[in-house]
Amino acid sequence: MSVARDIPSGNRTDPAADPRPVLVTGGAGFIGSNLADRLAGEGHRVIVYDAMTRPGVERNLAWLQSRHPDRIDHVQADIRDAARLAACIRDAKVVFHMAAQVAVTTSLVEPVEDLQVNLIGTVNLLEALRARGDGTPLVFASTNKVYGDLADLDFQLAEEAYLPTDAGVRGHGIAETRPLDFHTPYGCSKGAADQYVLDYARSYGVPTAVLRMSCIYGQRQMGTEDQGWVAHFLIRALKGQQITLFGDGCQVRDILDVSNAVDAYLGAWKRIDAVSGRAFNLGGGPANAVSLRQLLDFVGQIIDRPVDVAYSDWRAGDQRYFVADTRAVDAALGLSPKVDWRDGVTRLAQWLAAEGGINLPVGNPALAQSA
Ligand SMILES: NC(=O)c1ccc[n+]([C@@H]2O[C@H](COP(=O)([O-])OP(=O)(O)OC[C@H]3O[C@@H](n4cnc5c(N)ncnc54)[C@H](O)[C@@H]3O)[C@@H](O)[C@H]2O)c1
Fold first, then answer.
1. Residue 85 beta carbon below 6 angstroms from any ligand 1 atom
2. Which residues make Cβ contacts (< 8 Å) with residue 371, sequence separation at least 6?
3. Is the alpha carbon torsion for 35, 79, 283, 4 positive or negative?
4. How confident is the model at residue 3 (pLDDT cuts 50, 70, 90)?
5. Ligand 1: distance of its center to the CA of 101 in Å?
6. What is the mean pLDDT of residues 295-309?
């Protein structure tokens, strides 16, 4: 019997219409916990499938469980455990797949582990959905790293930021039509998983969508030097610690507040019939493009003192510039305007300061602006 297909797609996100749980792999992580919180807040039961390998995510899980004691079920298991995964998927009405080895740096040290978690783990998930054969949808967290280092683009330096000389790219960012070009083991494992997810829609009719994300930032991000750089910069700056910039710091990223990312995941689920088999670039877009140096200048305004910065060599696969062309995702998923990066970064600083018991300077214009 087809379960998901019996439910009109407009009702797929309505918990009253379908009381089965939602499965969020990596649901204790940064994006996963924000998504799980939104889902539980809307009345869905959520299975948080997470091996708890990332240090600090136990705080996210405790936060989720305290906010939604009756709606969060944690399964502590590895994405490579195919049998456990299949058992959890059996009853789910949709799967959001976030669990991953998330750092490029770690993938260079342990490429086999990275492959097993990111690619084999994803195929485990796809196989479980194929075996169910009832149209249960999957939305996958992919990355802009699938486009490689964009080394063919020419840039000019302006105000401590790389800007593409191509007017089309400068105006709109990188579109989904950009050829795939996997760099680093992380780029390869996530990129291959991205392609498998799309192909299971093509070959087996599993309704899937892929979101190739730029840098997402926001509350509950356990940022480190290896991954989650916006939170990492803020944590170090708030503690008065030095920050190492790899490269010249003029690299540009379009940063996206996690609340907007959650909107996109829910939108992809709601509109899965229209978007199945498609991949979208998801980021802050040109309006939220900022170089690392520009972001650090802003952080300096928040903490009311210059940030202590050191420089080191460029890291493998690092893009001089990545800004997502979000026109396709905005149109297909009906997304609303994005949080301005200055507001979002200020809110993250306030949250991190509160978490760490650090006082921010009172009367700071950067803080007053976002209040
Ligand atoms: N944060 C970003 O800016 C960003 C950008 C592009 C893509 N992504 C992708 O989005 C997803 C979520 O990223 P995030 O920033 O929330 O990362 P995160 O590290 O906060 O979350 C990942 C979660 O997966 C869990 N996990 C790791 N290995 C596992 C395994 N083998 N089995 C089960 N659980 C496991 C971790 O414990 C963690 O809770 C990842 O797939 C990542 O590749 C993130």
1. no
2. none
3. negative
4. very low
5. 6
6. 96
At CB < 8 A and 24+ separation, what contacts does 159-162 make? 159/294, 160/249, 160/250, 160/291, 160/293, 160/294, 161/250, 161/252, 161/289, 161/290, 161/291, 161/293, 161/294, 162/250, 162/251, 162/252, 162/291, 162/320, 162/321
What's the DSSP call for residue 225?
S
Domain count within the chain: 1
Q: Is residue 368 part of a domain?
A: no
- CA–centroid distance, 294 to ligand 1, in Å, is 26
* Residue 143: domain span: 4-360
pLDDT of residue 161: 97
Residue with CA closest to ligand 1 atom 21: 29
pLDDT tens digits for range 196-250: 999 999 999 999 999 999 999 999 998 888 889 999 999 999 999 999 999 999 9
Evaluate whether residue 46 is within a structural domain. yes
Left, alpha or beta for 184 (phi > 0: left; psi -120 to 50: alpha)?
A: left
The pLDDT value given to residue 7: 45
Looking up residue 297, the CATH number of its domain turns out to be 3.40.50.720
Asked if residue 347 lies in contact with residue 370, where contact means CB atoms within 8 angstroms, the answer is yes
pTM of the model: 0.95
Look-up of token digits 């990492």: 232
- How many other C-beta atoms lie within 10 A of the C-beta of residue 27? 31
* Ligand 1 center to 125 CA (angstroms): 15
Tell me what pLDDT residue 360 has. Answer: 84
- 289-291 and 216-217 strand pairing: unpaired
Pocket-testing residue among 98, 119, 217, ligand 1, by greatest number of atoms within 8 A of Cβ: 98
CB atoms within 10 A of CB 299: 23
31 lines ligand 1 (CB under 6 A): yes
Beta partners for residue 281, in sequence order: 212
Encoding tokens for residue 123? Answer: 């195929």
In a domain, 367, yes or no: no
**365: in domain:** no
Q: What is the pLDDT of residues 317-368, one digit of tens each?
A: 788 999 999 999 999 999 999 999 999 999 999 999 999 888 887 666 666 6
Closest CA to 307 of 218, 244, 355: 244
> How far is residue 297's CA from residue 90's CA, in Å, rounded to a whole number?
49
